[in-house]
């Protein structure tokens, strides 16, 4: 019986690849029209990694690591979407993905010990093994503001940004929220809008990204360290090269708070690595 994977983001693509490697038949269903998940949907201005690009790629294929160059330390959404499309093509994953197909219900059938899946278009599939790779951040939270339906202007949600982009030049624009996504969007929109108003409920703490291009030589150097990088990532809770700082806010000195630009301790990589053991 065919195994079913729901979602074709980073996790779904990998599940599809792994299950196939095990010699199993797999069918994936994806609500979007392309692969990438987070990096397919979130195409708002300024969308980019906030973790280092070279820690984010798949580690299962040496060949993939050899052939892929990250352009920036914190890649922008278009490059990450390109990367995941490259992975889908390289491992011929697309042939087992049914796009524009949202699973609306999954019922477990005790008698047959299988899952009965219902798609939004009413079609049905059954499977003994169901892997949901639907993401923890893949459902947009729409603003619940009284009267919002009567807003006559153009409105966009960052998660469902129009693929063709939006021209804000000279327009009066309002942004609701100042979380990580808004911080990225505000910086980009501010370059072209006529006037920008940011509606902030709660002030957020943010630090400069310190992004930079990755020159070829630097990328070649990173490539020689992949094993070390991934080993390091496996030691941190979020699979980053950073370890959370265990101190409470008030245990840090005011100077650290004002000038460090980092909320994490960078774990040491090697004597010639990128970070100090404490960069705060
Ligand atoms: C704006 C943004 C920036 C981020 N930046 C970083 C970062 O810098 N570093 C980092 O480590 N993480 C980051 N993340 C977290 C990111 O979500 C994960 O890194 C990763 O992409 C999650 O992959 P996933 O495959 O688990 O889920 P997703 O990428 O969310 O993919 C889930 C897929 O499942 C599909 N799906 C969901 N429900 C159904 C259904 N019922 N039927 C069919 N298909 C369905 C969705 O359409 C989607 O394509 C970011 C997240 C966001 C939103």
Question: How would you sum up this structure, described in words?
Answer:
This protein is an alpha/beta fold. It has a domain at 3-35 and 93-132: FAD/NAD(P)-binding domain (3-Layer(bba) Sandwich). It contains nine helices and eleven strands. The chain has helices spanning 10-21, 38-41, 53-56, 62-67, 77-90, 180-189, 216-224, 226-233, 254-259; strands spanning 3-6, 26-29, 97-98, 103-109, 114-119, 124-127, 130-132, 172-176, 195-199, 242-244, 264-266. The strands form four sheets. The protein has a four-stranded parallel beta sheet with strand order 3-2-1-7, with helices on one face. The chain has a three-stranded antiparallel beta sheet with strand order 4-5-6, with no helix packed on it. α6 (180-189) links the parallel β8 (172-176) and β9 (195-199). The protein is globular and about 60 Å long. The relative contact order is 0.14. The model is unreliable at 257-280 (pLDDT under 50). Bound molecules: flavin-adenine dinucleotide (FAD). Residues 6-12, 29-32, 37-38, 40, 42, 47, 49-51, 56, 102-103, 133-135, 137-138, 181 line the site of flavin-adenine dinucleotide.
Question: Which terms summarize this structure?
Answer:
280 residues, alpha/beta, FAD/NAD(P)-binding domain, 4-stranded parallel sheet, 3-stranded antiparallel sheet, 11 strands, 16% strand, globular, disordered C terminus, binds flavin-adenine dinucleotide
CATH topology of one domain: FAD/NAD(P)-binding domain
* Largest beta-sheet details: 4 strands, parallel
Overall geometric form: globular
State mean pLDDT (0 to 100 scale): 89
CATH superfamily of one domain: FAD/NAD(P)-binding domain
Total helical elements: 9
Report the structural category: alpha/beta
Strand proportion: 15-25%
**Portion of residues in helices?**
25-40%
Task: Tell me the Rg in angstroms.
Answer: 22 Å
- Are any ligands bound, and if so which? flavin-adenine dinucleotide
CATH class annotation of one domain: Alpha Beta
Q: Strands of the biggest beta sheet: in what spatial order?
A: 3-2-1-7
| Helix-strand topology string | EHEHHHHEEEEEEHEHHEHE
Q: Number of DSSP strands?
A: 11
Distance between the termini: 54 Å
Please mark out the parts with pLDDT under 50 across 5 or more consecutive residues, or reply none.
257-280
């Amino acid at each position: 019986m065919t195994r079913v994977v729901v979602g074709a983001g980073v996790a779904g693509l990998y599940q599809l690849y792994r299950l196939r490697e095990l010699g199993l038949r797999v069918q994936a269903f994806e609500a979007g029209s392309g692969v990438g998940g987070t990096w397919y949907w979130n195409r708002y201005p300024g969308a980019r990694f906030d973790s280092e690009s070279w820690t984010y790629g798949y580690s299962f294929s040496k060949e993939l690591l050899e052939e892929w160059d990250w352009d920036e330390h914190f890649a922008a959404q278009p490059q990450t979407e390109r990367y995941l499309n490259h992975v889908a093509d390289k491992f011929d994953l697309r042939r087992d993905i049914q796009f524009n197909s949202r699973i609306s219900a999954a019922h477990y059938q005790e008698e047959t010990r299988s899952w009965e899946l219902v798609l939004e278009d009413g079609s049905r599939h059954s499977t003994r093994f169901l892997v949901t790779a639907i993401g923890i951040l893949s459902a947009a939270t729409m603003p619940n503001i009284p009267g919002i339906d009567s807003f006559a202007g153009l409105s966009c949600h960052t998660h469902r940004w129009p693929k063709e982009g939006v021209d804000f030049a000279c327009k009066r624009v309002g942004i609701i929220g100042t979380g990580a996504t808004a911080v990225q969007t505000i910086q980009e929109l501010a370059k072209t809008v006529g006037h920008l108003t940011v509606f902030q409920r709660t002030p957020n703490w943010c630090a400069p990204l310190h992004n930079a291009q990755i020159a070829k030589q630097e990328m070649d150097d990173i490539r020689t360290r992949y094993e070390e990088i991934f080993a390091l990532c496996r030691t941190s809770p979020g699979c980053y090269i950073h370890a959370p700082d265990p101190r409470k806010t008030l245990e840090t000195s005011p100077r650290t708070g004002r000038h460090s630009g980092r909320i994490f301790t960078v774990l040491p990589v090697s004597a010639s690595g990128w970070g100090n053991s404490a960069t705060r």
